Q: What sequence folds into this?
């Protein structure tokens, strides 16, 4: 079993808030992250897949293919977008880094399986001080 | 003459566009950066000041004071904000990194003078691949 | 189960030595790290907690609260301090990165439980080439 | 149980290809990485070992000793070398990052055991966007 | 006058040597960098251009255009290549970082002029410890 | 004219204070940096030299030689040391980053001249947020 990780990046706007909360309550729970005019981040996405080496290629997986899948399934939908308003796989969800990591996992899990590998970890860094990791529903 | 640099960070949303352009024209000139629903960045701000050493303190300038000035004059106004809609010193300007660097220079120049130093450079990094530097009007 | 990590930083002096060793023996075992006049580091502390998402907030844990806990329980005690002489939770221990990571775990474990999460990992980086991880007593 | 990681670096040339493939087939499978005139990388190697603290030293392992072992067993053989042509432990293997990580594991496993610790992970980063991790044959 | 910098990256093999030196002399002058079987690096290229703001766009220069020029004129020729054997603008030159920076300047100077800006600096980093800057022939 | 930069690192303890100040006054002026029990940093030192290319070697200067000079003249004296107590070139000076940069310049200037190059800049980073640059007495 070997693990390989690909980093991709995206820039997006978002806002943490609940529509059923008052502005005051949103500010109390989410602080400045609830600014109604949005703010944004340079997100980094680290996708780790695992599996057995293909003896013919010496690869677990062709990283170009993995990168292409991540860019089609995720980056194309979130890069230079508003996560709350424009990202189909985040519809109806709070735009937290936690929910983002889980939703990205769900976007990628089957595609990675089709590449004969297993998705191991989705890591999303929101800033140099914060990151979230999701290893699937277990 | 010695140079000292302080880094501060802020997260903000923005959009590149001209209200007098059509949506098509904005897309043509500014690409995905013109997304009407905004996108955002983790900006890094590097402020370099220069001057002579204070022999008593061994400092050019007290970095805590410089940091406080930058946070009051700049960070408090841009962090977790929408640069196009909410930042007084960017009103009426295109929200490009170039304009941001120049506007931050103008916000800081006099305050640095009051600390007995001279503002030398404002550097704004928008991503790991892009940054702008402004050395004043010369 | 989701994992979230917060980075905090501190600058401290320390020295590796045993009072029951001679100076020669300390130098032999600990090398230049045993310098009696101390040396120091910019330490980075990564605290990873795990648990279930709070569906109402979309958070595992409020990162501002986690950051506040880390700063009160750890950073306030070690930042700009001498680890050997001034840090209560390192009293009587060798000031190695290993012992520091374990002691920080012990400082944080209960407080993280009070936030309805579980401490997963304490990682301390001493330099760009060295770091220690502790996952608790298991 | 505690985990400690040492980073070492090496610069090397390599090429991904199979001698039993035609040039066209190599290009199809390995892309520009199969360039017959080689290309190269600044590799980073992170070696993580685990074990119990030595109460006398406060160490899991003396990092200087671990660094010396990594440099003798691995870095001296790959730094400023051609991985395909000059590295004994890569003879007859495709020069992929995956194979490199596994071969480095095999070079280090016994030496780490002799230091009274257990090799936990060999991580090789090929670029800022790609890395491989190997945790042994399990 | 404002300055903007774009970073691009390339991976390449090279070797420092003079064909008119003996192997011993090459080893004496260039050390392990003269390995006849090549070694390689992840190079980073920082291109800084300067000029006046375009008031209509808020840009000095469109960074996408600058990136495209750098990729066509430089990256396409050096990425995953052997600098000594395959790079037209390095033919007959010692493959040092200094010569590389100067040659890249010459590749880019006119193209930047055509974008209504002035090339200010070409910076090439060979490792995390070494970089070269060239500001043109002055 | 070409510029080349070498990075070296050192870990040291220090304290900002004046012996002619009371403890209260030291705390007022220097804050927690005046802790009598010291604190410390992972310093990074960037030494930039300039000059003309040696056409025979393609170098401005042999970086191994430059590194050796920096390590002998500076790193050997400050690494794992107490800057206030043990560093000859800092005797009687406030241990500020500014004074450190100037003193390192004075240590290196002649040695760089002996290598047929000119010292251009000494940059000392004390943390990821602060650095000082000195370009000599001009």
A:
């Amino acid at each position: 079993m070997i693990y390989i990780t690909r980093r991709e990046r995206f820039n997006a706007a978002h806002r943490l808030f609940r529509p059923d909360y008052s502005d005051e309550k949103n500010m109390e729970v989410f602080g400045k992250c609830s600014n109604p005019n949005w703010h944004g981040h340079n997100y980094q996405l680290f996708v780790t897949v695992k599996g057995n080496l293909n003896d013919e290629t010496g690869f677990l997986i062709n990283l170009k293919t993995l990168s292409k899948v991540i860019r089609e399934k995720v980056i194309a939908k979130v890069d230079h977008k508003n996560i709350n308003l424009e990202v189909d796989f985040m519809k109806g969800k709070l735009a937290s880094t936690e929910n983002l990591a889980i939703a990205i996992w769900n976007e990628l899990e089957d595609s990675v399986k089709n590449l004969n590998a297993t998705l191991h970890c989705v890591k999303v860094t929101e800033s140099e001080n914060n990151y979230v990791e999701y290893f699937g529903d277990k």
Q: What stands out?
A: The helical segments of chain E are 23-30, 63-78, 83-86, 97-114.
